[in-house]
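Entry 14. Structure prediction run on the chain below.
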Amino acid sequence: MITNEQKARFIELRSEGKSYEAISRTMKISKHTAFNLGKQFESEVREATESEIRQLLERYKYQKTHRLKSSLKQLQRITKELESRDLSEASLRDLLLAAKLCEDQINNLSGESQGLINTTIKIVFE
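Output returned:
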């Protein structure tokens, strides 16, 4: 029989993707025991893994949103500058190119697949 602390530690290690061999060394248990614990706590490990994946994806989503907002702000500044420029100025080409790059980045960031969580979970467990 294992303690609640050992159970929690096993689930944590396994949900991080550690092998039974690595877990057995870390927890100082036999590889056979680690394998049996894997069977016994399979659903808990799966839930912990899914939770960790969701947390990572939420962080990614936040970072993506931040990048998108930054790109939109930059595009607004470029657009404002373009509106104030005389079209005969030589640096207009550079501003137009920067605007195009920002638009492309915004399209790439906003056009990504919405089913990222489910797809990632499927990949992990297949």
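Residues 42-84 form the longest helix (43 residues).
Filed with the rest of this week's runs.
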